[in-house]
Amino acid sequence: MSLTLIFTLAAALIAWLILLPTGVLVVLPEGQQRSGSAGGSVWSRNRYGAYVRNRSVPVNPNTDRQGVVRNSVKALTIAWQNTLTQAQRDAWDVYAKNVSWLNKLGQPVNLTGLNHYVRSNAPRALCSLARLDAAPTVFNLAAAELNLSCVASEAAQTLVFSFDDTADWCSEDGAFQIFSMGMPQNASIKYFGGPFRFTVCLPGDSVAPQTSPAAPVATPDWPFAADQRVWIQSRIGRADGRLSELARANFLCVA
Fold this sequence. Notes:
By secondary structure, the chain is α+β, with helices and mostly antiparallel strands. The chain contains four helices and 13 strands.
């Protein structure tokens, strides 16, 4: 075989490898579902069906924001081990066993008591609210926001969040709704998985309940322009520690 032919075949092989898709569609046997990573492969699903791709380790920017969250989780884990009584840990375990959770495949599973303890208290730390060591005695999640929306003004560089101000949390001392903003995207983008950044926490108040829309919130970290698309998300926390699932919405910014 001539050197010219060898080089031609090698170039074709390299070009083929470059053009390979990052994810390969697969057909699973009826009734089977897969999600997550195994070895060097990641199994997931999108609107085109199930697919598998090579696993990649994301870059860790180790930002100040990440440090705050990690320190909060670390402090809560230490509190679980060293501060909570065994009766309190048992109560969180009871709550966890009675409250189901949907995994990535939409199947109901149960988290651990520690999972719920950290999940419930980490947002409270962002909201500067006191840590709750006593587990909820009502066995469900808080109701998520049903009317989440937002207006973003390019001129003012502010977000104005709207929500259901008849919900119970608005007039409950110790309750809250925490809002986050995603990095602005082109208007044509239809899916966004992150990152999100904490924007504002609205506390419940029995004397002066929260009203919608909320006061404008400045967003100095991620400037945006008219007609860019922005995703927002929120969670509602109740005074007894129950935390809702995420509510999400997206919109186009105005001038």
